[in-house]
Design goal:
By secondary structure, the chain is mainly α. Helix 1 runs parallel beside helix 3 and helix 9 runs parallel beside helix 11. It is 71% helix and 0% strand. Keywords: Repeat. This is Pentatricopeptide repeat-containing protein.
């Protein structure tokens, strides 16, 4: 566009920066951002958020923090998505203390945290196999007014416990989810049923398979095959 004599506007720059970040071309994204600054093209909060997310995921934490400060210096009051991006940046570098500090800052500003904030934290705790801390955070969410766990939150916890061969804890989380009226999806059913089969808890596996059918979710062929094989291995019939 510049070769044709046109300077990109803020919308075009945002699209290009997003494309660079998705392609993991973060240096190009930063160069374009600097070019915007030089030409007095004011970045939007969304652009700042894209950069913080991208740089954070590459563990370029100092640069992500710099962009966050530039967002504030530009006159924009950080909103929940921007703070969530900052939380994620700290989590990618496993600076969980700083991530929780940002959560407290969000509370003081009266803009959160929201379920997405905690999902980000849980994702990284689970990835680091910090099971007890993840469950502690989950319990905190459950007690926090206005921040009810979503189906995504429950899915993170159920998958975590199933992967850690703690299916009884997965069932405890599942029961709490049902009590709250949150409906599981096919992936959650699949994770739980496969784990129950692995633990040879075939009565429970059949129970949740039937529950999945009852709520109108069609099981994938692989799940049906796995359950059938588990029953055959246990010398049982469907």
């Amino acid at each position: 566009m510049k070769d044709e004599g046109f300077d990109p506007d803020v919308v075009t720059c945002g699209i290009l920066i997003n494309a660079h970040c998705k392609a993991k071309k973060y240096d190009e994204a930063i160069d374009l951002f600097r070019e915007m600054e030089a030409k007095n093209v004011k970045a939007t909060p969304h652009i700042f958020c894209i950069l913080i997310n991208g740089l954070g995921s590459e563990r370029r934490l100092s640069e992500a923090l710099e962009v966050f400060e530039l967002n504030k210096a530009s006159g924009f009051k950080p909103e929940a998505p921007t703070y969530n991006a900052l939380v994620g940046a700290y989590c990618w570098s496993m600076r969980m203390h700083d991530a929780f500090r940002v959560v407290e800052e969000m509370r003081k500003c009266g803009i959160g945290p929201n379920p997405r904030t905690y999902d980000i934290i849980l994702h990284h705790l689970v990835k680091a196999r910090r099971t007890e801390q993840a469950y502690s955070v989950f319990q905190q969410i459950s007690r926090e007014p206005g921040c009810e766990p979503t189906v995504s939150t429950y899915e993170i916890l159920v998958r975590m416990f199933c992967n850690e061969d703690q299916v009884d804890m997965a069932l405890r989380v599942w029961d709490q989810m049902k009590t709250k009226g949150v409906l599981p999806g096919m992936h959650m059913f699949s994770t739980l049923i496969n784990s129950l089969c692995h633990e040879n808890k075939l009565d429970d596996a059949c129970k949740y398979f039937q529950e999945m059918l009852d709520v109108g979710i069609r099981p994938p062929a692989q799940m049906f095959s796995n359950l059938k094989q588990a029953l055959l291995d246990g010398e049982r019939m469907m």
